[in-house]
Amino acid sequence: MPSEQRLRIKTLVMVLALVVCANVGDLLLKRGMSRIGAVELTAHGIVQAFRLTVTNPTIWLAIFFLIGFMVSYMTVLSWADYSYVMPAGAFGYAVLTFLAVLFLHESVSPRRWVGVVLICVGVLLVGQTKPRTTEVAREAVVRCESS
Amino acid sequence: MRIVIGLAILILGSTGGEIAITHGMKSVGEPAQLRPLAVLQFLGRAVRNGWFWTGVPLMALSFYALLVLLSWAPITLVIPASALSYVAGTFGAKFILGEDVSTARWAGVILVCIGVALVAAG
């Protein structure tokens, strides 16, 4: 496979991974925290919320996905342009809207649908540009060659 | 005025933090393979990079600015306005990281920025 195509595929896979991890992580965190309920801003309330948070498996699963997001974000930025990855990651907003309609049967305003369409067109435009336009640091090239 | 300053800290903090992390990751170099051990070795090198530790506090500052802003201004203003970070980030990528931002990429970023603002506004 040509290296250009390989770079594009691995970048898209990592962007997909970071979008999925970020959104699943946020949804699980929201679900976990809403089960805990509103946190009282007193010393006792915060201690109790902390105890409930660290013993909640949903919160731990959310943290696992959010760590997955950070790892995939750092990894993809080690080879791809920031100006490529950052807008492509906004695709998550469109996915969340579709999921909200399909599974939660939420009604979505026309303004939000216009936003989703603009995001999709924008991500497609960015997606067809070159994922990497800068040179890899000399240090990094040497390290890759030696490994 | 304080809302404008808060928004500037929110946008510049997150953008500055991500640019610092991008610079750090580029100098660390990509993992030799996308396998767990190689990625763990990459992460080990990444957390010993100074730029990573420059980026993290900037992102924390941005998060703090978001919390403070939400107590000053309605969420329907704050979240759509934070979509400007896509434009700020692209300027940073071009002028600080030296990325080649083509017309198509600029057009895509501006559409994403407007789209995110519309989605966030509800």
Query: What's the Cα radius of gyration of chain B?
Result: 16 Å
Beta-strand fraction estimate of chain B: under 5%
Low-confidence stretches of chain B: none
Helix/strand order of chain A, N-terminal first: HHHHHHH
Largest sheet of chain A: none
- Helix and strand pattern of chain B: HHHHHH
Shape annotation of chain A: globular
Terminal residue distance of chain B? 25 Å
Structural class of chain A: mainly alpha
> Which quaternary structure do these chains form?
heterodimer
Number of strands of chain A: 0
The coarse overall form of chain B would be globular
Gap from first CA to last CA of chain A: 21 Å
Report the uncertain regions of chain A.
Answer: none
Compute the average pLDDT of chain A: 87
Number of helices of chain B: 6
| Alpha-beta content class of chain B | mainly alpha
Please state roughly what percent of the residues of chain A sit in beta strands, choosing from under 5%, 5-15%, 15-25%, 25-35%, 35-45% or over 45%.
under 5%
Number of helices of chain A: 7
Chain pair forming the biggest interface? A-B, 47 and 48 residues
Tally of strands of chain B: 0
